[in-house]
Amino acid sequence: MFAIDSSQDILKEWADEWADEWTYAWADASCRDETGSLTELFFSDQIPDIIRAKEICAGCPLTDPCLQGALDRREPWGVWGGQLFLNGRILAQKRRRGRPPKNPAPGIQLTA
Question: Which pTM value belongs to this model?
Answer without folding.
Answer: 0.64
